[in-house]
Structures are given as structure tokens and as C-alpha cells.
Amino acid sequence: MKIDDFPENIRPFILPELKGHLVYRCLGCGLEHNIKKLLYTCPECGKVLLIYDLNFDRLKQIPGETWRRIFDYRKMVSIPALKGIFRYHEFIGPVIPLDSIIYLGEAHTPMVEANAAMQEKAGIKFYFKNDGQNPSASFKDRGMASALSYINHLVKNGHISDVLAICASTGDTSAAAALYGAYLQPHIKSAVLLPHKKITAQQLSQPLGSGARVFEIPGVFDDCMKVVEALSERYNVALLNSKNAWRILGQESYPYEIAQDFEYDLSNKVVVVPIGNAGNISAIMSGFLKFFEIGIIETLPKIIGVQSEHANPVFKYFLEPDVTKRKFFPVVVKSSVAQAAMIGNPVSMPRVIHLAEQYNRLAEKVSVFVVQVTEKQIMDWELIANRNGHIACPHGGECLAGIIEAKKGGLITSQDVAVLDSTAHTLKFAGFQEMYFSRSFPDEYEISYDDTLINVPTLVNPQDLEKLPAPGKPLIGDDFQIFVDRIAEEIAKNLDLKKV
User: How far apart are the first and last CA of the chain?
Assistant: First the structure.
């Protein structure tokens, strides 16, 4: 739709103006730093950063109702830069020109309502938001579109050159970083660090296919992260993990989309998200807070983070009800089917603590919760979801298990409506389903099996058939008809079909 076809009072707002004044702000010492240099931690105290817009109050000059119409009309524009996360440009990257924005088809993933059987089983109305339908098949593309668009802007303006983008990953981050980095060749080269034999074959294939240099090292994600941090401190590289505050900005598009999909009415809404490196839950809180402050939404929804008991440092932190007595301690993780959440020392934990305090204060009640689930619950609920028409990954199964636990604990009620984050495409984790169906999970996963969820193929090969087709050797005539009739008879018998 052409801009001239929009209502006159909306036309001036369709193309965003570059009026933001962004700075890095340290969550430790509070110092602010210029964004023209890529920073990941405070140069003064080493603490984690968030990006703040010092001109944010300018957005309050536009009424919340008008902002809603701006975003709704932007749905119809044909400008690629405004089709993805930057539909919300003023809230995500108000200093990035449209010609620097990378759009690979990310964001605005579908929110699919669970069928009646699933909602009855869960005791609550809920939706899966299928972030596995992003270009690299995970939610990580949101943050990469933001981080790489900003790096592209710096390159175009001569602030940086010959960029090596590097990240640690449990699989999805590396896929997204390599994909967006490949799009910006030759200005960007990519390298990723992975824990050896701790990601699926499907996930490993993605950065390799995008041409990134892939390094596998012993240990788990936390070990990879420490090496990447050391590289970013000592060498000229661009770190693309969620320690990069631009990643958080991009992931804020997720709560903005939820608000828009519910027509900005978030009363009785619950957003459920798995917690790994804690960047996603930080972005969700930050995004809702911004929309609330501007008046685009009038209610802050409940947010429920979910962790496996095999990687639960955030859950343990929030176990202490007295905020003044809470202390964070990293944990030693064990093997988990929720691989992206298998992190014992999340780098965004300071952001979680800071934003949760602010969120609960503005909501005027405790609205941020964390629950814990078992590995068996994660696998079982993933399989149940997919048997009911969804494409839930293990992290989507973790979220579904999480709302069951939250409902048991009285954190949510049957009157609430939940949105569950299925962070990646289930096909990335097909190996876990195969291990479940073949009962071959290693002991350290602590998985027990439900026979009713196991599904394996049945070979139909009647022993009385003398001739069988083969590649390059088809059956013909009577032999082929005998084969078809006999196979059909066996399948009908297996399915207990009645003749017409």
C-alpha cells in the first residue's frame, strides 16, 4: 500500500524519523557510554549494559491510540525495512536509517491458538507463538536483525571495518549470527563457538551452511561464553551473544507483536518464556514496560519464566520471597533437552533483576514469576502439543509444562489467556524425539517414557509376497496388482478398517 493512500493524519508517521539519542547505560555503576563504539560491558566496572533512549519522552507527545494506528497501518507498507522488527522502529532502533536495516523475513511470527483438547488438558486458554518460523528457524533472528543492522550502519558510516562477528551458542544463536553475517559479506565474517557434541546435527549444519568458521570446544555453553568474552575483551571482534545490548532491543519486538495481536488489550494475559541466557525474558519485560510508559498498552501482563531442574539458577534466585535477601549463584548444569536453556550462569541476570523490580513496581503487584519443571515434563508436553497440531520445540514443551506448574501453584487461573514461546522449529530437535521413541536417552537426561506417546513406523512386507518392487525395478501387470492388493489388505487389517 502506498503512503499516499493512508489517512492524512497518519501519513507523517509512517516513515520514522531519526530522532533517538541512544546510549549504553551500565546496570552496575550507572555510567552512560556513547554507542558509536560497540560495547558489551561497562568499561569502568565491567557490569552488563542496557540501551536507553535519552529522547524517549518525545514519544509521549503522540497519544497511545495514535501509536496503535501507526503500527497497524505499517502492517500494510511494502517497504522491506519496516516489515520486520523495525515496524516498531522508534522503540527498537531510532538511530538506524532505513537503508541500513537488514530484513530477511524475521518477526511477526504466527500466534496459534491451542485446540480444544489441549486447552482442556491445560485448564487454560493458550496460544503458541511459533518463533521457529523465523528465517533461521528460531527467535534469535530478532536480536540478530537488530545487532547486525546497527553494525551495518556503523560500517556504512566508516566507524568500523573488517568485522569478525563471534558468538557462543547452544545452536540457535550460531545459526542466526551466521545467517545474518553471511548476508553482509564481504564486510562481515562470522565465527561461532559450540560445546562439542552438545548441539543437534540439524543445528550444527546451519552455521556450516552459512559459511561461518565453527569451533567446537569441550564443556558446555558457559565455557564457550567465557572464551568468547575473553576474545571480545582482547581482540577486535563483534560479540553477538545477548550480552550485546542491541540483541535485547531486537528481541523486544516479541512483546510488541503480542500486544498488537491482542489489539493492545493485555488484561488477563500471561506470557510464558523459557529462560536460558535470560536475554529473552529481559527483552519481554523491557518491551512491555516501554509500551506501558507511552500508553500503548494499559496493563502489564504476567510474565512467567520457566527453567528445567537441570539448569535452574534464575528459579533458585526467585525462590526467596524477600527481595532484599535474594542472592544469585550460578549452578552446574546437567544435560537437558531444552538445550538453549542449559545455562548455569546467564549473562543477562543483572538485567532480569533490574527489570523485574521495575516491572513489579509499575504493575503494582508481583507480576514476574519463575517456575521449574522436569526433563520428563518438557519432553512429554512437547510430544503432546505436536500430537495436537502444533510445531512445538522442546522449549515450547518447557513453556507448556510451565503453565501447568504455574496453574498448580496458583500463579495463573483458568480466566487467564497465555502465550507460550516456542522458540525454535521442532525439526531442529528431531533427534530428541527419535531418542524418546526408541527409548535411547542417555541416563543423564533422567527421561522416563510414556508408552502412549511413543510412535514408530510399521513395516508392511507380507512374507507371502513373492515379488516386490525396488528402485529401478518396478513391478508391472498382474505382479503389481497382487502387490498393491496384498499391501492394502495388511494396512486395512492393521487399522481395523471396514469394507464399503
Answer: 53
